[in-house]
Amino acid sequence: MSERRACRVLGQPRSTQRYTSTKPEKDQSLAARITELAEENPRSGYRQITALLRREGWWVNQKRVHRLWRKGGHQVPRKQHKRRRLGTSIGGCVRLRPAYKNHVWSYDFIFDTLEDGRAIKFMPVLDEHTRVCHRIVVARSITSQEVIRELERLFLLHGRPTHLRSDNGPEYTSEAVRRYLQRSGVETRYIEPGAPWQNGYIESFNSTLRDELLDRELFSTLYEAEILAEQFRVRYNTHRPHSSLNYQTPEFFANHSTCTTPSTVNQRNY
User: Fold this and answer.
1) pLDDT at 265 over 90
2) Is the C-alpha dihedral spanning 126, 130, 131, 136 positive or negative?
3) Of 68, 150, 191, 240, which is most buried by a Cβ count within 10 Å?
4) Cβ pair 140, 159 in contact under 8 A
């Protein structure tokens, strides 16, 4: 049906049908400037943005700015706590590649819930070269002192690693943990904040842990979660073939491979 006939049927003037509002065009430049000011001043609301616009010579009121502010999806982000940023790309798995047993260990947190909805933490500790998981700590909460106790126990059982890689979580960057590792002769390797790919070995293990255990089991108690996590760790080390180890198990690879010794590693890369 033609536009002329449709307008005649509906009783609508053709001038109304063809009318195009110029208001969006007038607001387009203003909305763009509001977006720029919001990016430059992330802690400012629409009232402060209005004041900045008026200072620049824009003849606007708060209602108009508020309408464009909401339309653009702008909002003042919540205040965040200050964080200690220790990580650098030097600590990432690309720059620091594990070359022998006990060269680089890594650890991280992964979360799940019990049947009643209470949160629990899993902290796996991995030898990156052999892919052997030395421990999976399961608890409601894990403090820096508990991290130290677990590391001390693992160092006695398996020896001390040369480097220990982790993210910038408060349990890992605390003064107590860093002092303990310094006394033990272990060098900390913190990845850059917001760059989990720099801790790729433990992230890959966490993905397997999530896929093969956490997403398949419903834990009724913390004790049950500890038992099943330990069973998974033993199976992962002794029975599950690892693709990056030519489908050998981590334990077999650790016991039979000709791992590079520290003396033959090119230290210039580290």
Assistant:
1) no
2) negative
3) 191
4) no
- 5, with CB counted inside 10 A (0-12, 13-18, 19+), is exposed
Superfamily (CATH) of domain 89-262? Ribonuclease H-like superfamily/Ribonuclease H (3.30.420.10)
Beta carbons within 10 angstroms of residue 252's beta carbon: 15
pLDDT tens across 113-136, in order? 999 999 999 999 999 999 999 999
Q: Where are the domains of the chain?
A: 17-71, 89-262
Amino acid letter for position 178: R
CB 123 within 8 A of CB 107: yes
Label the pairing between strands 104-107 and 163-166: parallel
Chain-centre distance for alpha carbon 12: 57
Q: Would you state the structure tokens that stand for residue 244, as one six-digit string?
A: 């990056």
pTM of structure: 0.64
Residue 266: the pLDDT is 43
Structure tokens given for 231: 């069973």
Work out the pLDDT band at 76, boundaries 50, 70, 90: confident
Short-list 228, 230, 221, 216, CA closest to 115: 221
Asked if residues 199 and 108 have their Cβ atoms less than 8 Å apart, the reply is yes
